[in-house]
Amino acid sequence: MTFLDLARKNTWRKPLRTVLLIVCIAIAFLIHGLTASFLAGSQGTSAASDTILGVMSAGGRGQTLPMAHCARIAADPDVAAVGYMARLRGFVDVEKNVVPISAVDPALLMQTNGGEFGLTPDLLAAIDQGHDRVLVGKALAEAEGWSVGEPITVTAFQMARQDGSRDWRFEIAGIFEGESASTDTYFTIARYDYVDAARAKDKDTVDAFIVRPREGVSPGALAAHIDALFANSASPTRTQSEKQFLEAFLRQYADIGLIVDLVTGAAFVTLLMVVINTMIFAVRERTFEIAVLKTLGISRVTILTLVLGETLFIFVVGGAIGLALAKVGTMLIGPSLGLVFSPAVLMRAAAIVLALGLATGIAPAVSAMRTPIMRAFRTR
Asked: What does pTM read for this prediction?
């Protein structure tokens, strides 16, 4: 019998107890997988850029910037490309079914961060065929069941048309998939000229400018220079990287990272206490057998390794089940909730599995290793 066979058979001596432990571990890692995937998706840890800059009003997200700023930013020799974007938030059918729309110049978007969204010349040609054409992100299209060529009507929450209506009608010209699975594609790209010409107010204004620095230019230095350029104007700016903007936006509502750490930390601390207590009792039940193994010449290090192997086996099986369920969950509901089960999430979870397996097994393993043979025989 090999070492692994012995560890596996010892683990399944009490099948019900082992199954319950595996279920507890699987639930804990299911929670960790989903919350970590939400954090990765919402903060854009794998997709958000540290180099692409967003120029917004210093007065906050509710304030717009004049289009005239675009020419002054583009004239800066450290700027490689600059685009602009106006937000149109609305809903389809019911108010809970929110559809975010970014009104842009497609050609300028392609120059700034078109690669991030997976834009291609064919998609740009498709949206240029009509002012009311839009490109829909894959995640949003799957959530809504939309397809190319389908007409859609989005009722804006605030942006009214010149005729007083808040219903904006578009035709889907194409679907963009994003550069990677972690790219946010739960939004629609519309033409700025169409939206700006039809809206009743805030004409010739934008919500943000998107700036790509030239190669070798420090994004931080360029951000400070842009803000200094408009510091004494009627519309001062605040420039941040894409990642900084996403993190600041989330912190307006809550510290998502802290919440995730507290939830998963509570789950793992509870799990640690349950498994340690269970394994101590399991080792005590085998005290006489451990004495026999020592009598037969099995070393103390081997006894230690055997008990650690049992706890690691339970954690690996339970953790694998929990992470597999988390992966399935992100595939089913991830597109609509922005969950991203990235390789970084998986690697971190695997490290936690090993760390918890060793942490829970070390106390009963050391106890089994140090138990004197004569005292162990008296327990019979």
From this structure: 0.62
